[in-house]
Structures are given as C-alpha cells and as structure tokens.
Amino acid sequence: MMGLALLVPAALAVGLPLYVVVATRPYRYADAAQVPARRVAIVFGAGVVNGVPTPALAERVRGAVELYRLGRVRKLLMTGDNSRKDYDEVTAMRNLAVSLGVPAGDISLDYAGFSTYESAYRARAIFGVSEAVLVTQGYHLPRAVYTCRALGIDAVGYGLPDWLFNRAHMAIWYSPYDQVRYTVREALAIGKALVDLHITHPLPTFLGPYEGIQ
Which of 19, 42, 143, 180 has its CA 20 to 30 A from that of 187? Predict the structure, then answer.
C-alpha cells in the first residue's frame, strides 16, 4: 500500500509534464524562420536585477526582436511583474527591444503578468490577443503554449536555448543545480497549470479595462 501511495505521485510527476510536452509538440519551433506568422509575439517576464533584464529575459527579448525583424510578428506584448515600484520587468523589456530597433509604438506592456496563466488570461481578455507567437526558453515553452491554447489563443511557440548556452555570449548561464531545480519547479508548475485550466479556473490578480493592441 505504501508503495502504491508513492507510485501514484511519481507517475503524475512524470506523466503530466510528458502529456503537455507531447500535446504541444506540433506548435513549438526552435528556428525563427520556421515560426508561422502571427500578428503578436507574447514575451514572458523572467526577472530583472537593478532594472536590468536577467540573461534569460534578455534572450527572450532578443528572440522576439528576431521574429519582428523577420516579419513573423508585427507587435510585441511584454508581460511581466510590476507589483512594486522598484521592480518593473516590462519597462526593462521594452527598453531593450527599443534599443534593438523595435519602434515603441509596436510594443504593448502588461504590468500584471504575474504568472504564465495570468499573462495568457490577460493577453486574451485585456489585450484582445486571439493568436500569438510565444517567446520563452525551451523548458517553459510547453506549459506556455498549452496554457494559451487552453485559454483560447491560437498560440505557437519560439523556444530559445535554456540549459546550455546563451547564443549571444556563448556562456553557460544555468548551473547543474539550477537545471535540476528548474526542472522540478517546472513539473510542479505544469501540475498547477492543469488544475487552474481544467478545474479551478481562477481569475487573474488584476483585470481592468480593455486595451486591445492596435
């Protein structure tokens, strides 16, 4: 009986992430030139330090700019955490994108994207996004694509390198410890996402007036 009690959680911990990975495989791309065209790219926050994007976040912004330059998208939606005056992911994201040549008028900011679920929900409800390219690291992309599609967005994903190398600087930016930690955290996050999407259906922390992307 004890063995069964341990086996079920272990099976779920492996099976649920595998299900999400398999279900989203047709919608995930690693080559920007192969990404189907969509009007909007959604770029998910990944932390800032003293107002500067972390390496992971900077890579996401550069990936979105690459899609913009290739004509795969025409607008960028930066979504992240601005829950405190001294912590503002999306403004840092916009500033980097502008410095890389994207006109500020083609960038929209979602200051209340506190999680992947909330970012996806708000993209649909507040910003009127019905189709999008999602830009994030490969480990996060299956959950992001699954969440957006379950919430009514025709989403495909552009997956950036995660565990190995930053393409711009060719430097390892995840230690072995980080790799294990993020893998476990992502498995738990997938489980929570499935509960949110199919059982509890929570509202985001903030909604607000409609701000459709023009």
Answer: 42
